[in-house]
Structure formats: structure tokens, C-alpha cells
What does this fold into?
Amino acid sequence: MKETIIQGIRWSFGGQVVGTALNFLINLILIRLVAPDAFGVLAMIGVFAGFLGVIRSFGTGSSLIFSQKLGKTEINTLFWFNVGSSSVLAGLLIISTPALTLFYREEGLGLITTFFAGQMILEGASTVPLALLSKEMRFDRLFLVKVVTLFLSGIAAIIVAWMGQELLALLLRLLTTAGITFFLSLWLVDWRPAAEFHWPCLKRHYHYGSFLTGSNFLNFLVRNIDDLLIGRYLGDQTLGYYNRAYAILLFPLGNFSRVIARVLFPVFASLQSEVQQISQVYLRVSRTIAVITFPAMAFLLLTADLLVPLLFGETWLPMVPIVRVFAILGAAQSIGVLEGTIFQSLGETRIDFQLGLILKPMMIGMIILGLWRTNSAVGVASYYTVASLISIIAGSYVITKLLGISFWQIVTNLFPAFSITFFATLLTYLSLLWIETSSIFEEITVTLFLFWPLFLILIRIVFPGYWKEQVGTIRTLLKVKPEGKR
It folds into this structure.
């Protein structure tokens, strides 16, 4: 299992590094070419399209990975089920255009819903090919799908945006991303769809998929009701700031935590009865994630007012306080994202759903309260962050019962990374009060060379065993042998 995880992380993380660099560069160019309100309008329809996307596959992709034995008829049935359900929901999205126009008081949404409908059908068709690649642990092929898709769709969007078609550029990127992903994944997987459909094949996926869909639906409500309310009551420009700040929050999740989670899910699913082995890997992986994402988000917290205008331009300055709030949430969610992997790989999607029925309404209430009390995007972000921290703690407690470990083990497991990050951030902030700089670039450089050396020195001195383990993990991933063993 260890070698499988290492190989999977290498390919997945390699793909994420290349993909992140491409995505960052493409987004940076698009932000310069496209006005904030275009991103805001897209986010409005994205809320409803995303909701339909949650119920589209009925959890069949994850259920396919979780299942131990699958026949060709069963795989074909799942494929056509996804194509059919996606097509029906895409049609529903299109005919909902008048209602969306009335709700948002925004004209010209017909083109946007049409593009989102096309994306939905193609994503539905991609569900089974991508799930098969993941189940077979063909992370090298998933790497190829990701990189090629990002590059080609990004180039197309930049060309159209440069020609002055700002909104069309963003829409084209959505559609080409889904289309290229489908055709490339189908070409790379060792399976081709056949014209067969057998209803009984769906039965054994019902229990797993229904609760997973319920959990995904609750998560969707929490992660999108803020966009919906801000777009409705604070306007598309404010939503554009909030949406882009949230995208920065997703950076540690999408670029590290979820990379590891995608690798662990098929591996853990193949070891469903080996709970002790899964718990040991979970604790070690959590430590590695924390030692990277905690300081990264702390550095973002320190430099948000410098990085935002430097990278995105003065127009985006209003999102600085939102970024700072979400930096705290990003650190916590980088660990919390593993909770779903544990629930799914152990087949406990019902427990995950029941937990969500308690926690998600609380989070939605906090988001509404934040908007009502502050009437600002920063207030919504702050209340959302507090609610998310409560939810992550509660989820971690339930995970301990499934894995046969104590909650105190999780606390002590993350304490080194948390404590050293806190003190490194505090010392850096106090030091900057006494240091004068003449430019944004100089201040970022000073902060960089204060914070990161402080973090590394402190963690090596205070927690030498923790330091040694993380260095060993990095050497293993990079295949670097320790000195004296060459």
C-alpha cells in the first residue's frame, strides 16, 4: 500500500503543480482581461448549475470506486445513467432561465445557462471513465487528462478574452474543459461504452450513492448559499470579490489536501477491513498536510494586502480582508477534507449524511446571520469560518470512533504544526512593525525571509522528531536517500 500511495501522490501532486502553475497563469491573465462583474454573473448561474451537478451522478462515481467487483454490464449501466440524468438536468437548467433572470434581476442569462447545460452533459459522460481511471489507480493518465485540459481550455479562453468577448471567454473555458476531459479520459481508459442498460445493476449502488448525494447536497448548500445571498443583496461586483477570495481559500484544498484525498480514496477502499492500517496512514498524512498548509495560509494572512494588488491589480483591493478571513478557514479545511475520504472509503456514507443533517443547517444559519448583522462580504466570510471550524471539530470526533483512535490523538497530531505556525506568524508580525520598507515587493521579500526561516528553525528545535518524520516523507516522495546511505 505504501508504494501505491507514494506513486499516486507523485503523479497527482506533479499534475497539481503543473496544473496549478497553468491555472494560476491563465487566471492571472483572465483577471487582467475580464472585469469583476463578469466573474460575478458567472458565479450566479454557477450556484444553480452546481446544485444540479450534485444530484446528477447520484454518487455513482464514488460508488464505482468503492465497489470490489464490477462487470461490464454494470459499468455500461452506470455510464448511460449518468448521460441520461445529466441531459435531463441540463434541459431543466435551460428552461429555468426566465426564473433565474427574475431572481437576479439580470438580463442576458440565456447564453450562460446554455453553456452550463452543455458542460453538465459532458461532465456526466466523464463520470465513469474518470472513476475507472481512479479505481485502477492510473494516476499517470489522470495527470495527462488534467494538464492537457487546462492548457487547451485556458488558451482558448485567453484568445477570446483578448478579442474583447469577456463573458464568452469564461463560458468557453467551462465548455472546453468538460469536453476535452470527457474525450481524453475515454481514450485513456481500458473500457468502451456499449449499448446495454440493466436496472438491477443500479440497486447495489443506491444505498451508498443516496447518502453520499445527500451529503454532497448539504455541502453544496453551505458552500453556495453565501454566493447566492451576496449576489442577491450585495451585487455582482461584491460577489466577484468574494468569489475570487474563496478561490484562494481553495488553493490549499485543491492543490494539496484533495490531491492526497483522491489518492487515498481508492487505496483505502481496497483495504476496507484494515481499519488500523487506515488510521495510521490518516494520522501521518494529516501531519504532513498540516506542516505545509498551516504556514502557507499564515503567510497569506500576513501578506494579503501586498499580494492582492501586486498580482491582481488595484481593482481587487476590496477582497483583501475577505482573503485574510478565508486564510484561517483554508488551514482548517485542508485537514477537514480528509473526513469525507474516511467516510466514503469505509462505506459509512450514511453516518456522514446524518452528521451533515445536524451541522449544515447550523452553518447556513451562521451565514445568514453574518449577512444580516454586518451587511458585508467580510461579515459573511467571518461567520462562515466560525461555523466551519465547529463542523470540522465535530466531524473529527466522529472519525475517531470509526478509526478506533481518540480525539486527543488528533489534537496532539496537529499541535506541532499549529503551535509553530502561530509563534512564527506572531514573531514575524512584531518584527515587521520595526522594519521600514520602500515598496510592496521589498515588504513581501522581507516577510518571506522572516517567516519561513523562523518556521523551519522553530519546528526543528522544538519538535525534532516531527521534523525528522516530515523530512523523511519528502525524501521518500522525491526518492532522495539520506546522507551516508548513498
